[in-house]
């Protein structure tokens, strides 16, 4: 087909009888159209270039349940999207309320187990005044408690029973029983406190109804129960979304649970501060202070009607993750050359039943942060009370190191909960009692953390399919001051790894 026959060419050809004026006008219009077209082309090109340049970094958080994965994610959010983090703080109040209610419930049920048949009175020596604790347990003052012979002395809430002869010392020292009678103010009985704290039951039901979608199968999970059940929400923003629809979204004004907590504040403080109660908890090896979501030392502050959670409170709150979720964000805070990087952090549920969901996320990951909560050396898993937490972490670490899908992924190890580890060792708990190979080395934080770091590092060397970099940090991810620097190092390392991978792919 000749140009003369081409209909498009014919349509575009200037008219044969075009005057000079018409021709000038036409050429001006065509020039304008060319400029517009060139501008559009340049815009498209720039967009493509920007998209290509836009780095998407994927980071996977792994570790057993309660190892601190979600807390680490919250640290990233606090550091790099502070506005969003701050805006969401008020939403965490409901979780903190639930954490408090649960702690109080654990105390009350420990003092007065639902199955009262395992408690029988026995005569006490040297008691001057009735013990509120014992009154609740026995229904009568002036008597101590003991276990029915043959009862295993099982402690449903204590998590520290692994290999430690749990409860072997429970009720073994009659003087301890005598000492429990001295503490509560004369006019306060435990029964009275329990009555005063009854409204917390309603608060618990209210909070669960608010936080857990109606179609969730197991909405009422309780920490520390033998089956390890605990309140959870699916990851993502649904629970936050549900809360944000409530009228008090941006405000700190009181809601019903907060009002109830406020009215129960004195009773809760009396219960928690009672040395007799503490003594019973101690003997039952229930260390709420070291457990997740512990706010009982802050009751006065966190039960104020207009309480707004601080950054530290949000990091300390406990909400179990079930499922896997990817949180995408761009750093609000300029982090040097990292501006514009899109971060995708995958947070998984760490309990045994959740681990099958991890593998699909091993593909296309830039780095893994593995959290090993080394303070758990004397604890058992909530979901399997025959498994020591440290041992479980070591087995998981071996599995991650040896996984072929992850052979080229750099691993970052957080030996986490070092704050708790230090306190625990200082209080006299011996690592060698649980880790025989530790033998008679010094039971200090420095010696223990160095030893465990060496063990994890050796596993990495031995089990990794290919040599790769290994970064290990002793962390307390709830601590805002120390964690910032560590997270910045991880950020730089992850971005470097990402660039390296991009070059390999290019
Ligand atoms: N004291 C202390 N508490 C910590 C530390 N890391 C985490 N926690 C607390 O431990 C609890 C559990 O942490 P999470 O981040 O929810 O644990 P997780 O690994 O996400 O657990 P799952 O969602 O069950 O897999 C939370 O209440 C945290 O505040 C730490 O280093 N020190
Ligand atoms: Mg979690």
Automatic annotation (TrEMBL):
Compositionally biased residues, Basic and acidic residues: 21-31, 245-256
The keyword Nucleotide-binding appears for this protein: yes
Pfam families: G-alpha
Keywords, alphabetical: GTP-binding, Nucleotide-binding, Transducer
Signal sequence annotation: none
InterPro entries: Gprotein_alpha_su, GproteinA_insert, P-loop_NTPase
PANTHER family the record matches: GTP-BINDING PROTEIN ALPHA SUBUNIT, GUANINE NUCLEOTIDE-BINDING PROTEIN SUBUNIT ALPHA HOMOLOG
Name of this chain's protein: Guanine nucleotide-binding protein alpha-4 subunit
Naturally occurring in which organism (per UniProt): Mycena chlorophos (Agaric fungus)
């Amino acid at each position: 087909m000749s140009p003369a026959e081409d209909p498009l060419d014919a349509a575009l050809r200037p008219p044969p009888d075009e005057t000079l004026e018409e021709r000038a006008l036409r050429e001006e219009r065509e020039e304008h159209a060319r400029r517009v077209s060139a501008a559009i082309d340049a815009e498209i090109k720039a967009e493509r270039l920007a998209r290509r340049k836009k780095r998407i970094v994927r980071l996977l958080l792994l570790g057993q349940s309660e190892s601190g994965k979600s807390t680490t994610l919250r640290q990233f959010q606090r550091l790099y999207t502070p506005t969003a983090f701050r805006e969401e703080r008020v939403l965490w109040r409901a979780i903190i309320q639930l954490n408090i209610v649960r702690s109080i419930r654990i105390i009350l049920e420990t003092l007065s187990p639902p199955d009262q048949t395992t408690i029988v009175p026995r005569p006490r020596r040297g008691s001057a005044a009735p013990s509120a604790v014992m009154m609740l347990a026995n229904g009568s003052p002036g008597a101590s408690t003991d276990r029915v012979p043959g009862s295993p002395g099982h402690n449903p809430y204590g998590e520290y029973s692994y290999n430690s002869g749990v409860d072997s010392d429970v009720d073994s020292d009659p003087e301890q029983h005598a000492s429990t009678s001295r503490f509560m103010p004369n006019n306060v009985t435990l029964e009275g406190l329990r009555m005063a704290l009854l409204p917390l039951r309603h608060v618990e039901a209210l909070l669960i109804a608010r936080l857990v979608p109606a179609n969730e199968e197991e909405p009422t999970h309780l920490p520390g129960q033998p089956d390890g059940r605990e309140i959870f929400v699916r990851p993502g923003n649904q629970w936050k979304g549900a809360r944000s629809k409530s009228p008090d979204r941006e405000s700190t004004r009181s809601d019903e649970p907060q009002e109830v907590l406020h009215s129960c504040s004195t009773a809760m403080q009396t219960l928690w501060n009672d040395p007799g109660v503490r003594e019973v908890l101690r003997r039952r090896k229930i260390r709420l202070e070291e457990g997740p979501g512990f706010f009982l030392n802050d009751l006065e502050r966190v039960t104020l009607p207009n309480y707004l959670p601080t950054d530290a409170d949000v990091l300390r709150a406990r909400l179990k993750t079930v499922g896997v979720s990817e949180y995408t964000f761009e750093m609000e805070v300029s982090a040097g050359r990292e501006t514009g990087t899109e971060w995708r952090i995958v947070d998984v549920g760490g309990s045994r039943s959740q681990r099958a969901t991890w593998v699909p996320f091993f593909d296309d990951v830039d780095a893994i942060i593995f959290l090993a909560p080394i303070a758990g050396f004397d604890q058992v898993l909530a979901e399997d009370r025959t498994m020591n937490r440290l041992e479980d972490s070591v087995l998981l670490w071996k599995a991650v190191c040896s996984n072929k899908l992850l052979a080229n992924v750099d691993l970052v190890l957080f030996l986490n909960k070092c704050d708790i580890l230090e306190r625990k060792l200082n209080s006299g708990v011996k690592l060698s009692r649980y880790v025989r190979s530790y033998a008679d080395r010094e039971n200090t934080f420095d010696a223990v953390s160095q030893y465990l770091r060496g063990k994890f590092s050796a596993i990495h060397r031995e089990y990794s399919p290919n040599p790769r970099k290994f970064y290990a940090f002793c962390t307390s991810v709830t601590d805002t001051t120390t964690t910032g620097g560590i997270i910045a190092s991880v950020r730089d390392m992850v971005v470097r790894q990402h660039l390296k991978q991009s070059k390999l792919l290019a």
